[in-house]
Sequence to fold (552 residues):
Amino acid sequence: MIDELLRPFDFEFFRNGLIVATMAGALCGAIGVYVVLKGMSYIGHGLSHAIFGGFAASSLLGVNFLLGAGVWGVASALMINAVTRRRVIGSDAAIGVITTASFALGLALFALFGGVGGSFDAALFGSILGVGTEDVIAIFVVCLLAASLIFLRYRALLFTTFDPEVADVAGVNTARMDALLTVVLAGSILATMQVLGVTLIAAVLVIPAAVARMLTNSFARMLQLATVIGSVCGFVGMNLSYHLDIQSGPTIVLTAATLFAAVFVVTGATGRRRAAGITAPAPLAVRAD
Amino acid sequence: MTAHRDREVLLALAGVTCGYSAEAVLVDVDLAVASREFVGIVGPSGAGKTTALRVIAGSMRPARGTVTRRPGLRMAYVPQVETINWSFPVTVQECVLMSRVNGRRLPWASRAERAQVAQVLGRLDIGDLAGRHIRELSGGQQQRVFIARALLGEPELLLMDEPTSGVDVRLRHEVLHLLDDLNAGGLAIVLTTHDLNGIAAHLPRVVCLNRSVIGDGSPHDVLTPDVLERTYGASMQVLEHGGMPVVVDSYRREHSHHVERSL
Fold:
């Protein structure tokens, strides 16, 4: 039994996949806390689809995937951030336009110039087979950037997330904080896309944060718990992916969803009341009269 | 502009006009606030009270006119409690520590910061609530948490948006007495409110605002039927009780008189 469980560790592709999945879970867990508390879940979902357009374009042009999709993703992230802050049209509508157009462009490029196959499925649903050393380095770099941002700008990020208007008065550059967070979110999606797939990344952003919220009322503890929960789900999900012969994205998401259901039942009404807040819209704008 | 004759002017709005789109919310507003002043801005809904606070705080720039702040002026802003996301996972201590955003970079509080938080919370009589979630507090305690967050930044000017809105009479007095004490300690305060009689009883200076400044001075000078009618567009009576002006809605008086007669 133990030998059977340890057998996949003999393969380099699995070891790489496991490292990426575990780090991706931790990364998405931590970033997901800010995403859900700022009411940016739809941005996370949309951005993962937007990056698919960059993936398609870079693979057809023969450009390095991380570079092409990275530039595309960061550009989309900053565009979404700018449109959202301007509040000319509803942010959900703006995100919908930018990200679905980018996703549709990716699909159209694949349809016109070919390319449907393994890489296409991997981009959509995640695949352990395509994970190489390059992906391990990419996720390591993004984790380092995210950890640095969270560690060094912890208070400014918390203030911006909780109470942006007052944070602004207190001297926090909230526009810069939002932009940094969105760029790190784009980087996280890019670095985890190979393992999780664009259609499932949003779940890994949201579920660990939601589980952590049901377990605590403290922001610091929620951040720590979501990071640990995300990494455990990535590790367990990747192992299940190998043994059950199912794509890595779905197994990681289903592992996280199972944990969510268990915590939901165990914490009862208290947990549900706490988690109710994360489905609420972003903090209300101050009434201007 | 009044009430800053013998004191250092902290900030001054001169001819400020601004709005959110093409329509101006504030038109040609002049307003100065001096150190240790306690100013209440009153006016009907849509009069531009919150916008005025935003301009003072610097989170909104005027389309015309100037805002002059004393160099190095430390300000703190307490938002309306109705705008707070009470489901946000934050304890009282975490909430108060947010205002220390420009000091220590590390996520966790230093021993000195924890002592300062304890001191501020103790001063506001909520010292035993540091570990509680903000939603688990009473209305008065919640208001005090956000005042504590503002005070931790050691401001010279405290801006408060509708601190007495949606609270009962007891809590309203509790909040205004607390602000009285803070003002007596040297803190300048500017607040917005709909509560005319509350500010008449507690504040030495009232500014009546309806897109522009209609009246500015002591409650006795400003809370007159003429100024109030020009501010609110409705007839009001001002009575005297215990040496303080008491504003009474004329419609209600006439209406109740009519009811009495019909009975």
